Amino acid sequence: MAQAWKCAGLRWTGEGPVLTWVGGRGSALSRGKRVAFGVAEGGVRTCVGARGHACPVRAGVTGRSTGARCEECARLDRAHSVAADTIADDPRPYRVYLAWFGPGLVKVGITAYERGAARLLEQGAVCFSWLGCGPLMSARRTEELLRAALGVPDRIPYAHKRAVRAGLPGTEAERAAEIAELHARAVALGGWPESLTPEPFRGVDHAGVFGIDHAGVFGIEEAGRGPAAVGEVAELVAGGAIGGELVAAAGPDLHLATERGVVVLDTRLMTGWELVSAEGEPCAVPVRELKRAAGVQDGLF
User: Fold this and answer.
1) What is the rounded CA–CA span in Å between residue 216 and residue 301?
2) How far is the C-alpha of 56 from the C-alpha of 270, rounded, in Å?
């Protein structure tokens, strides 16, 4: 029987995306690499636990859950979370940022200074700029101030991020224009906490890192560009398998060239399953049509 591994999620490093496995092993992913795995017949997806601890009852979770946690473990995981605003005594410095995911999709957020741009890579931010740095509560107050004053959210669903990738502008300057304008408006606002040090606009572009600087992966087919994405994995299932060449990766998403076309796999759907290696098996998991943002030209698909 083939050895089974449990996926612990996708992690971004300075060298690119790495699939991590329970037990500490990691699989570095580079564009052009074949990614293939299956779920054993009779396999069951179980809760991944919370805060480094296994689920005490090994509860089952649905295949479509991106959190892969039962209700109780999900509650425990958020009980000590900066993102959920449930802690206020973290002594580390934090940065406030503006992140851009595509036309009209900008968010404001905070991340620990020591993490650098890792949080932005994990979220699939196509470009971003720092706004300021300071203590956690100062960063949180600034985030709330800017969210209200600029009219930008602090969360954007991944489905919306995928939908706009087909319409990304072709140059770094065009991609940075929206957050450059918002950064200028933010700096002009009053009411920033005195303990937060503002940072000048400096756009950082991840399109090349993600492999989406040549839009053919998601849009127009041209010389030197790949085919358009045709769908996204809805869930993994017992006995199912998927395999393909990695053509792009953004946030938790892997874009795989399969025999059915380019399919987007959210790696959060992999956690909680016992996975085995696969070779030439066809793409045998539920795949739904990849939605696109309103206003994107039909010609892009």
Assistant:
1) 9
2) 20
Q: Model pTM? A: 0.88
Sign of CA dihedral 239, 46, 54, 156: positive
141's enclosing H/E stretch is helix 136-150
How do the residues of the chain divide into helix, strand and coil, expressed in percent and rounded to 5? 25, 30, 45
pLDDT digits (tens, 9 = 90+) for 136-182: 999 999 999 999 999 999 999 999 999 888 779 989 999 999 999 99
C-alpha to C-alpha distance for 241 and 243, rounded to whole angstroms:
7
Burial of 236 by CB count in 10 Å (0-12 exposed, 13-18 middle, 19+ buried)?
buried
pLDDT in tens, 222-245: 333 345 678 999 999 999 999 999
Task: Let me know the angle formed at the C-alpha of 268 by 266 and 272, rounded to the nearest 5 degrees.
Answer: 135
- Tokens 């996975």 label which residue? 275
